[in-house]
Design brief:
It comes from Muriicola jejuensis. This protein starts with a helix and ends with a strand. The chain has a single domain, classed as Porin (Beta Barrel). The chain is mainly beta. The relative contact order is 0.18.
Amino acid sequence: MRKQLLIPILAMFMSLTQRAQENTWSIEVIDPISFNHPFALSNEGTLGLRVNYRFVQVGKVTFGLSADGSRFATTLRPDQEGEYQEYFFKPRLFAEVPLTRNGNLSFTGGVGWAWLYSRGKPTFFDENGRLQGGDAWADGLNLDAGLIYDVTPNLRIQSSFDQPFLSGEAVDGNSGFLKLRGGFRF
C-alpha cells in the first residue's frame, strides 16, 4: 500500500518543484498608505494581501493577472466615535519589465478595477451632505505603477503608487495609495 502511494506523491512533488522553478505565482503582504482620501486622518489597522499569476512573457515583458484586497480601520474625523472600516478589492492586468541586466530591478504597471466597501458607525452627514457611516459601495478604474526588487530569486520587495478613480455612495473622486509590499514567488 505504501509503495502504491509513494509514486503518486513523488510525481506530485516533482510537478510542484518544476512549477516553482518557473516562478509564475507570487503572494505579497501589503502595507497601504492612503492620501487624497477622506479617511487620511488615521491609517490604523491597515493590511492587505495580493496574489499574482504571470501567464506569458513577450520578449522581456512579462504579463500577468493579480487580485489584491486591503482593509482600513480608521478614524474619519477627530469628533467621530467608533471605527470606520473600508475594504478594497482590486483585480488587474499587469506587466513587468526588467530595468537591469540581472533582472533584479523591474518596473511594473497595471490597469484594473477597484471596488470599495465602506462600513462605519455611527452614521452621520459630512460637510458635503453625503451620508457617512453605515454601509456603502464605490467602484472605478484603477491604475498603478511601481518598482520591484528581487532580493533573492524567490523573495521580493516592491513599492507602488495605486490610483483608483472611485465613484459611488462611499466616495466620489480620486484616492491615492502608496503601497509597500514584501512577497514570495513560487
